[in-house]
Amino acid sequence: MLNKRQCLGLLGALSLSHAPTLWAQDAYPNRAIRVIVPQPPGGGFDFVARAIADKLSGVFKNGVVVENKTGSGTLVGTELAAKSEPDGYTLLMGSVSNLVLNAGLYKNLSYDPLKDFEPIGLAVSYSYTLMTRKDLPFSNLADVVAYAKANPGKLNYASAGNGSGQHILAAALWHLAGVQITHIPYRGAQPAYTDLLGGRVDLFFDLSSTARPQVDAGTVKALAVSGTSRLPVHPQVPTVRETGVAPLELESWFGYFAPAKTPSTELNRLRTEFRKVITSPDVMERFEKAGGKPMAVMGDDAKALQRRDLDRWVALIKAAGIQPE
Hints:
Layout: H1 4-26, E1 33-37, H2 44-56, E2 64-68, H3 75-82, E3 90-95, H4 96-105, E4 117-126, E5 128-133, H5 141-150, E6 156-159, H6 165-177, E7 182-185, H7 189-197, E8 203-207, H8 208-217, E9 220-225, H9 240-243, E10 252-259, H10 264-278, H11 281-289, E11 293-298, H12 299-320
Helix pairs in contact: 4-12
């Protein structure tokens, strides 16, 4: 029979032998991580979010779940993420649209793009492609601008919602070109495409990744891209700057962000696995095939890039007098 000291020693040994198992059960993450996408399915936000989440689900065995939280452009989903518990289990699909452009668009923004979020990392950037419906008699951007100057307000353009990247970029272009073109906001990119293909709207400045299938199919005409250089997938389409219409450039980056005050342990784990995923050959190939430029900009470097774009675009939005309508 064991004496009291021997019993205590045995219990201690048993506790130590099970400690790794108990720690593993409690280790982060021990339940599913959700990624809030502040746009409907089918657009650039959703495409990038799911490409990363699919791969991360193979790392985090409890899964990574994408949730589309829409409304008021990108405001509803982004605010929800900002106010979520900073425990590493809720992330935001962040982009130029919701974490840069909204700061210039809304006077009383319900979240602070810099203070309320910590970047996990930026995965990819995309140009936007300006398209017209197939039957419009314009072969280039200069033709569109010339017609718009002679016929103020007769042309219209679609966007994925007030405050979306499509809205701001197009409005800034028309402002710099000195023309009046009517804005028609939609709830996401897919209904905008429906009306563009149906001939009910004239122009749409969408992310090149989601515009590519329509351009390749010949269902729309591509007039220009917003990036600093032409796209390898559409080398015949000039940049906006090349057209001479306006000195405008924008590439929309996409990445995962966590609510501010998320513990460093969780942030570091997320950043480690996020970097592995976005630099994996299959994910990079998936982005490149959609016309994107893989980035892998992490942590503080991502925040510095975000701050640079805020300084540039907030001033332009205010100068152009762009309103959320």
